[in-house]
Design a protein that fits this description.
Structural class: alpha/beta
Number of strands: 12
CATH superfamily of the largest domain: NAD(P)-binding Rossmann-like Domain
Strand content: 25-35%
Number of domains: 2
Shape: elongated
Helix content: 25-40%
Distance between the termini: 22 Å
Mean pLDDT: 94
Radius of gyration: 18 Å
Low-confidence stretches: none
CATH class of the largest domain: Alpha Beta
């Protein structure tokens, strides 16, 4: 049985993972911002951790994920990162330090992965594109990691330069030449739309997640894959 330390285990995604993880995996401890009742040990700081595991699964916060990842690497664990907010510089440092597989997954949703793949295909024919992502108000980072990754993939797939537009603040954050807009509204878990415009035609791709349980199959795929890879990989699409 594969042993897992779960960081962020009492957030909504962390709770969904606890409730739906398959019998092949055993959570041997949880790192959390505060104490909770649990059948397994709960730690509130890295210094308190007194067990080891095969995989460190991190669905914590942008403020803690980098330090957590370095801890896991130093203690010879493979790492699956579902928390967003890592900078390009931090990712480069993790890549340098990784001794086992490290898998960064901006979105565990299979439909989100397909949206990114469809967007890459469309970008070859429609260079003019903008991304809109919507999450609940408690999401602390903006744009989302999924939206950033989508923009980067679109930029790399373009065969033509987009039409120049204004750079006013209302035009969103420019990520590799793709405007990205973030909405934070109650009633949403995760939604992303990618809007392409051409001569007298438009193409819109939309992906929605209505429950965090939808992320669990992607989590399980990631846990199965990370022990078989070497170095750092970004994206669920790279392992399915």
């Amino acid at each position: 049985m594969t042993k897992i330390i779960l960081a962020g285990g009492f957030g909504k995604l962390g709770q969904a993972i606890q409730d739906n993880l398959t019998e092949n995996y055993e959570i041997v401890g949880i790192l959390s911002g505060q104490q909770h009742e649990s059948k397994v040990p709960v730690w509130t700081s890295l210094d308190e951790i007194d067990v080891t595991a095969d995989i460190w699964l991190d669905v914590s916060t942008p403020a803690t994920v980098y330090e957590n990842t370095l801890y896991a690497i130093q203690h010879d664990m493979a790492v699956v990162i579902g928390a967003t907010g890592l900078s390009d510089e931090q990712i480069s440092k993790i890549r340098e330090k990784a001794t086992k597989g490290v898998l960064i997954v901006p979105n565990f949703s299979l439909s989100a992965v397909l949206l990114m793949q469809f967007s890459q295909l469309a970008a070859r024919y429609f260079p003019d594109v903008e991304v809109i992502e919507v999450h609940n108000p408690k999401k602390v980072d903006a744009p989302s990691g999924t939206a950033k990754q989508t923009a980067k993939l679109i930029s790399a797939a373009r065969s033509e330069e987009p039409t120049p537009t204004s750079s006013d603040s209302a035009r969103g954050e420019n990520i590799d030449g793709v405007p990205v807009h973030s909405l934070r509204l109650p009633g949403y878990i995760a939604q992303q739309s990618v809007h392409f415009g051409g001569v007298d035609e438009q193409l819109t791709l939309v992906q929605s997640t209505t429950s965090r349980t939808a992320f669990v199959p992607g989590v399980i795929r990631s846990l199965a894959a990370v022990q078989k890879v070497e170095g750092l990989i970004v994206g669920l699409d790279q392992i399915i």
